[in-house]
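Subject: for your reference before the review

Hello V.,

The reviewers asked for a structural picture of the protein, and I figured it would be easier to keep everything in one thread rather than splitting it across files. Below is the amino acid sequence we used in the manuscript, unchanged from the supplementary table.
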Amino acid sequence: MVDRRVATGIEGLDKMLNGGFIPRSAVLVRGAPGTGKTTLAFHYLMHGAKHGEPGLLVSFEEFPESLYRDAESLGWDLRSLEAQNKLHMAFTSPIGLLRDLETGGGPVTRLLHMHDIRRVALDSLTHFIRLTDDTHELRHTYNRVINGLKREEVTPMFLGEETNIDQRMGERGRLSFIVDCIVMMHYLEIESAVERAIFVLKMRSSAHDKAIHKYTISEGGITVGPVLEGHSGLLSGLTNQSIISSVR
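And here is what came back from the structure prediction:
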């Protein structure tokens, strides 16, 4: 058990995580487009910024104005935190980030050192799939990114798309075995209605809530609600055997 935790600022999720993530653990947040992965990353970075842990969002495709608008729709002012040097943004390419982390002289590592950044969210790890068709090289690439950020003594959060193709290719690189914690965000059809569901699939070195919970997204962000009770087989077809086996 680890006493100190890195809280997300989402009360219900932090309870599921037994207080938060373990410091310097590699966290994968996985879900289909629109499930709220970026919103969860905003929560994570803003909570740290407000509690003495500056954050950095690394994006491969979103531009600042788009991120500002997304945050404003939830009632959040990212510009204000940036002006206070509590939150930073970096826009780069997968290759650029790899070189940056390995040489230590690029814009991302300069930001990490200059502002004593403790939390990083990367959107998204899925982009590295497109760099190679070789299974072993992909796994090596994942390790380079994850270990490069861990060496900087930050707690990195990686966002990953959950489509059938991306999931299959991502597991070819054994990503679920490399990361320390996996949070899954899904749409589920329950009694002819669509519900959002969140669960912690894996968390090394710590107990965690293994139940599937409802969650909603509205102004103010994500609210994690009660356990989805009275239903079985909710995950059928949503997580393949290679992912499930990574928790064992």
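For the response letter, the relevant points are probably these. The longest helix spans residues 135-151. Residues 16 and 209 are 5 Å apart (CA to CA).

Happy to draft the paragraph if you're swamped.

O.
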